[in-house]
Amino acid sequence: MHLKTLIKDRRGAAAVEFAFVAPVMILMYYGLAELTQGMMADRRASHVASAIGDLVAQDTMINTSEMNDIFNVGKAIIAPFPTNGLSMRVTSIRKDSSGAIQVMWSKSSGSMGVLTTVASVPAGLIANNESVILAESSYVYNSATKQALPNALTFTQKYYLKPRKTAQVTWSTS
C-alpha cells in the first residue's frame, strides 16, 4: 500500500528534473561567458592594430617618444585584459620605381621583433614610388576559468594603411 502511494506521489519531480538539467545549464553559461570574453579579446586586438596604424599614418615624421606613446595607446585599448600578452609592430613599407618592396623602418613592442624584409603585399595595394604603413598586433588570450577554453588562444591582426599627409611617414632619430 505504501508503494502505490509512493509511485503516484509527484511532489519531488521538479527537484529531480532540476538536478539533471542544472549542471548542463551551468556549463553552458560558463562556456558562453568564456567564449564571449575570447571574442572581446579578439576584437580589442584588432582595434589595437587598426588604431596604432592609423595614428602613425596621420603623422609625417615619427620618433621614439611618439612611437612609445602610440604603443601605450595600444595597451590602453586592450584593457581590461592583461597587457603582458600583447605585442605590436609598426612598419613603413615602400615600393621603389622598379617595383621592389623594401622596409624603410620597423618598430615593435612586446615579443614581436622588428620586420627587416617583406616578401609581398596584397596585390594592387602599393604603386611604384608609394609607401604604406603595416600595423600588426598579436594577443595571447588566457581564459580566467580555463573551462571551455583550457589552452591559450593567440589572436593576430594585420592592417595596411596609406599615409595621409605625406607620401611616406619617415623615422626621425631625434
UniProtKB/TrEMBL annotation:
Bilayer-crossing regions: 12-32
Record's keyword terms, sorted: Membrane, Transmembrane, Transmembrane helix
Domain spans labelled TadE-like: 12-51
InterPro entries listed in its UniProt record: TadE-like_dom
Protein name: Pilus assembly protein
Gene source species: Phenylobacterium ferrooxidans
